[in-house]
Write a structure and sequence with these properties.
single chain; 661 residues; alpha+beta; 6-stranded mixed beta sheet; 12 helices; elongated
Length: 661
């Protein structure tokens, strides 16, 4: 079982066929399904769903061997019936849109589509070992039981408050394990919770029963395993009647979180459980232990396996190869490994020595990657092309394929003096300057293709010419940018994204222009970019750069606000303390006359000045006389008043004095 573990790195869902491990089903990142033959290491079948981009495959599971009937058939022999009855048929695929697809490996096409059960991404699908039904769980926190005969929902119930990440059926098909916030064991007859277990701190990514049903009454003594995302432990749980089964009884130590687990269940108490675990750090660990109650100390792997590829020419340092899946074969020492790329994996059967604790397999993947498909599966036919038919070949926009015509052989006359033009003379004859009134048209009348931004952009990306790229990227017209990106060929999309990411790290002004191009690229070529396995590494630098700039933008905004506030306060204080400057402009301008006018007017001016001075002296004397007379009168009045007071006279008015007389 392959699990993504809730990690940001995409892990391709894959699974070996049960029992014989004859086939390996693998879902690629673009949503297509590929079935590989493990014996010949060739592609057996390939299926691309209609909605493979919008509804990618999130999980898959092989169904049990079944005998199928599709209408009336001829009566077969016993040997044919025996061979056909034990053949693998259906493969269940859970999608991100909430649907479940059933693919038939016998027919090589889609068998049926189960819809209407989930509203969100399907996390896990499991087949019932006996009944003709299927169980699925989703992010909508519900478990759905499907009836495969009718293709409809048989039963549906809410299993947890949050998303249900994993399912597992007991060997007898009567109990169902589900993992959400906690691990629950359900009774499939009553749809009620039989046991609850603590679970893990993170989302549970895998569940698997470790033993068959014990001979005791009920489910007591049954063991199962669980693994979680970002957890380097595999926990073993035991169903007990005393209620002390909430905590794990055993744990296996790993180097990283598990992504694939294969288990050889024990049939009795004394038989050891064999376990092959593939971790996210490209290592595979083997465990072998007899499950017999509680064990305090975590168990270490008995053997660890790594696959490495030899270094390139001049570099002897090997680099690790990712392991996708591992399966335990009937032979105790043999192991089936699938490693390499998800598009074309390498499947190998290896034999391990029991005494070695760490094994490193050095394999040259580049030499062994050869795509070989069965002729019975491929339905590609080579078309027959007529001689007079016009063949359209793909190419760059604006360019057309050259017309290959067989020229007629003409014999030259012996007396004819015909000379062929050299390349220099031909280039001199061609007039590349545009004619008046016809921009971009030369003598021949055909439009020049150099004015096409799509052609210029492709040429600049192929030649890494900065001048051409600067000319193209400096445009600010949205319509022109969208048309250029839409006409861009598919092989030039990834180099364009790399060039834009490189330029985004430069000057902020160039970043404003590059954002428009990135927006257009993601709008028109999102479906192609989503199929690239190395998209995360290409866009990771761009994402981190944008995130760091956004974080720095808030700090710069705060600093800009504080600086603006300080500057405005300083300007206000300077304005209040500053004194208004004096007006230096003259309010009256006196212009002197010429020398002759000065001589004529000197006599009159002198006389006028003398008269004025005499007049001023007379006025001053008159003022002094009047002031003295006023002072004398005031002095006489004061003396009279003093005498009256001494004599006892009152200040009565004349009328009052007459009345007293």
């Amino acid at each position: 079982m392959a699990t993504d573990g809730g990690s940001s790195v995409f892990v391709s869902p894959c699974a070996f066929s049960p029992k014989s491990h004859q086939y390996l089903a693998l879902s690629t990142q673009d949503g297509s399904l590929r079935v590989w033959d493990t014996q010949s290491n060739t592609l057996y079948q390939e299926y691309v769903p209609s909605a493979h981009l919008s509804a990618t495959c999130t999980c898959l599971a092989w169904g049990p061997c079944r005998t199928f009937k599709d209408g009336p058939q001829r009566k077969k022999r016993k040997s044919e019936v025996a061979q056909h009855g034990g053949q693998l048929d259906l493969l269940a695929l859970g999608t991100a849109a909430g649907t479940v697809l059933l693919y038939s490996t016998v027919k090589g096409q889609l068998h049926s589509k189960l819809d209407g059960g989930h509203d969100s991404k399907v996390n896990c699908v499991r087949w019932h070992p006996e009944n003709n039904c299927l169980y699925s769980c989703s992010d909508d926190s519900r478990i759905v039981e499907w009836d495969l005969q009718t293709g409809k929902v048989k039963c549906k119930w809410k299993a947890d408050k949050c998303a249900v990440s994993c399912l597992c059926l007991s060997p007898d098909g009567k109990m169902l394990l589900s993992a959400g916030q906690t691990i629950k064991m359900w009774d499939l007859e009553t749809k009620e919770v039989y046991r609850r277990f603590t679970g893990h701190a993170t989302a549970v990514s895998m569940l698997c029963f470790a033993t068959t049903r014990p001979p005791t009454r009920g489910m007591e003594g049954l063991y199962f395993l669980s693994g979680a995302a970002h957890d380097r432990m595999l926990s073993v749980w035991q169903v007990r009647s005393d209620g002390k089964d909430k905590n794990a009884v055993l744990s296996f130590t790993l180097t990283d979180e598990p992504i694939y687990v294969d288990l050889a269940m024990s049939q009795s108490k004394d038989e050891a459980v064999k376990l092959a675990v593939v971790c996210k750090d490209n290592q595979m660990h083997l465990f072998e232990h007899v499950l017999n109650g509680h064990c305090k100390k975590p168990l270490s792997p008995s053997c660890s396996v790594q696959v490495a590829s030899p270094g390139s020419v001049g570099d002897s340092v090997p680099w690790p190869v990712p392991i996708m899946a591992a399966a335990l074969t009937i032979d105790k020492q043999a192991l089936l490994l699938a490693y390499g790329s998800g598009l074309q994996p390498v499947i190998e059967r290896t034999t391990l020595n029991a005494g070695e604790t760490h094994v490193c397999l050095v394999r040259d993947i580049q030499a062994s990657l050869t795509l070989r498909t069965e002729t019975t599966v491929t339905k590609v036919k080579t078309p027959t092309v007529k001689a007079d038919a016009k063949l359209l070949v793909p190419g760059l926009p604006g360019h057309s394929a050259p017309n290959k015509s067989t020229p007629l052989e003409t014999k030259r006359k012996p007396g004819s003096d015909t000379k062929e033009m050299s390349i220099e003379e031909r280039l001199g004859v061609i007039d590349l300057s545009p004619a008046e009134g016809h921009k971009g048209v030369h003598k021949g009348g055909l439009p020049l293709q150099t004015d096409s931004f799509a052609v210029l952009l492709v040429q600049g990306l192929e030649s890494s010419d900065s001048n051409i790229l600067n000319k193209v990227f400096q445009t600010k017209k949205e319509v022109l940018i969208k048309k250029t990106v839409a006409r861009l060929p598919i092989p030039a999309v990834l180099p364009l994204v790399q060039e834009l990411s490189k330029r985004m790290q430069g000057h902020p002004y160039s970043g404003v222009l590059m954002v428009r191009w990135l927006k257009a690229v993601f709008t028109f070529h999102a479906s192609y970019l989503s199929t690239l396995p190395s998209l995360v590494s290409h866009l990771g630098v761009l994402y981190h750069m944008i995130e760091s700039r956004v974080k720095m933008f808030h700090k710069l905004s705060r600093l800009h606000g504080k600086l603006y506030l300080l500057i405005t306060q300083i300007a206000a204080t300077d304005k209040s303390q500053s004194v208004a400057e004096l007006d230096q402009t003259a309010k009256l301008v006196y212009e002197e006359d010429s020398s002759e006018e000065e001589e004529e007017g000197t006599g009159d001016e002198m006389l006028a000045e003398e008269e004025d001075s005499d007049h001023w002296e007379e006025e001053e004397e008159m003022k002094e006389v009047t002031e003295r007379s006023d002072k004398g009168e005031e002095h006489n009045d004061e003396e009279m008043n003093m005498e009256n007071k001494l004599n006892g006279d009152s200040d009565l008015e004349p009328d009052n004095e007459s009345e007293e007389e």
